[in-house]
Amino acid sequence: MRHSRPFRLTLLLLTSLLVLAGVGPYFVQADFAQSALVAQLQRDSHRTLSASRTRVVLLPRPALLLQDVSLTDPDKPAVFAQAQQMRIQLSIWPLLSHGRFEVHRVEFKKPVVNIEHRPDGTYNFDDLLAQPNQVGNGLRFNLDRVIFRNADLRYRDNSLNESFRVAGLDLYMDNLGDPKTGSLYLEGELQIGTQQTPQWRGKITANAAMRYHAQERRLLVADLKTTITQRGDSSPALKLADVSITGVGNLVYGWQPLRLTGGDLHLSASGKRAEQNWNTSLDLPEIKIVGDVLSLNRLALQVDMRSPGNKLSARMQVPTLSGQQGGLLRANAARIDFNMSSPGQKIAANFASPLEIQDGTLYRLPDYVLNGSYSNSALPRGDIKLESRGHAMLDLRSETMSLSSQGQLDREQMSAALTVNDFVTPEYHFNIDVNKLDLTPYLPAVTDGAKQIDQGRDIDFAWLERARAQGQVRVNELVLKNLHIDDLSMNFAAHEGKLTLDPLAATIYEGRLQGRMEVDASAPEPQIRIQQRLSDTNINTLLTDVLDTSRFEGRGQVDLDIAAQGSSLADLRRTATGNAHLQLKQGAIRGIDVEALLRNTSKQLALLGTEVTQPADQDAKTRFTQLQASLKLKDGVARNDDLAVATGVVKLTGAGDIDLGIGVIDYQMKAVTNSRVPELAGLAGLSLPISLSGGLASPEYHVDYSALKNQWLARQKAADEKAAAEHAAQLKAQAAADAARRKNPGKPTPSPTPAPATARKH
Length: 762
Known about the structure:
By secondary structure, this protein is mostly beta strands. It is built from eight helices and 37 strands. It has a 37-stranded mixed sheet that branches. Strand 3 and strand 4 (79-90) form a beta hairpin.
């Protein structure tokens, strides 16, 4: 070989021919191949293929190189796919033996593919996978490798009205004809939403074993492992962050057309939405598709959510879910376990119901049976039970949920309707009607005489910070120990940290309550305002519950317009400001009998001391026919200046202060008798000062007898002085008459008027 010149020349010639065969076609236009390919596609799929240049390559395998390729939709000018370059590698043996073009491998560089899922379940590429009319030396496909480099895959689902895109996609499907070594790998950026303004972006990677059985026309994607991780921020509407999705399983596809026909899949996802941390898992251990019928067996879904104020957990188990693909899926039996907790309270619910799923986003429970419970830290002695039937709907696309039910709450009849909009910042609309709710068995147990309410304990207004709710609540009878509230109804509205109950009406304290109530928790200190009118009210029960005093009896009307701020009952009492007006009829003031005091005083006027102080006698009463009083509250202190009490025998007036913050009273009254009562005639025109002071629950009263005695003595002194003056005037007149007679002895002189007798001798 080193010395044979002919051999070297032959080798050089063969090498040159091989190089020319392999490289030469790159520079030679191959219009005949392009024309054949265009004609074949037009005949088989009614699509138009165009390319700026087509080249033929012989080495290392025969191939066609197409530049600036585009492929239209069937019988339409719209572009289905386009690529900067397309390499079609042909099988050698069919080409040499039969002169037939058989596509073995396809490689695309910077392709753009527009895939559309139609409402009828078909795809816009189904015709490309259909069996071609293989006659003569037409184009045939026996793919072993498909490669997409830096692809842009655009997908639109018209049934869901959603758009997806995978940009910068690198896709490798290799050894497709080998049932043992086929593989799939892809990597790219998944985008959800429009191409111009995607709502969400994430990196997607996947790998799997590919097993294609030509005779069965079946493609198996085995040991699939897919991961999707979020990139950047989502749109403000989605508010998603740190999303991660993984999927593992085995998928079976039919060929011509390409359709999923079975398999198993497990999906898990985690991420944040606003301030919520979500974890979700979906198990589909058995997927079956026969024709257009989809069956999902032993489906299990688990959802967990945590936020600063709430924790939610839901689990759904479905034995069999089946129906038309892209249509309605139905399960005859499904079970959903739901638990939600927030500071101080917990809701648990178990649903058993048929299940309907439409388009993968609309869920219905058309006839559920619900067993649930509600617990609250303010009701520590058990859970309130709920049993009901109804229907529910969950729409993931519009983020709405609705529920309507009839049943029993704590073994009493109830009905409820609930709608929730927006799952990030939920907005609730509800209508609840309960026959009777007795909370007594659930309230804290206390011993007799123990203080039942901790005045200094903070009231939890934290739930109002994010609450958005509006609705109506009606309770025919609400029981709280000895307190019975009947016909309770309210319009409830909560928004931006503010709660409004307007109107708020009930039968309470044996009277009718009508008015409104506001709570503003958005301020640094929670603020409360109450505007109410209580008509025909039992005032004793009212004052016992509100002011912790039982000083008054009677029925009448109470008008309140009071505002306060603070986070505890003690703060609210200390800061209360506003006005109150009280009108009572046919009642009594407990702890003192003013009429009896005056009768005893009238009998012992001369023996009266200076002042007497003694505790209130709860059995003593001052009965009245009418009582009126107005209160002006400022910083927890109530001031009254216009007390007017009429008893028929005694008239009481008064003024003073009630400090609600520390629970003390400082009040002064004056008692004036009716002069027409014979046994009290001696006190006519006099007033008896009485003062109340000390603790609001049991004050002491002070009767100022010395002041009454001083009034009586002053009155007697004035009477004596008047009598003495009249007697002196009479003596003076008599002396004048005597002087006149002496001066004129013959003239008659009028007799002087005799002086009146002294009222009382000392």
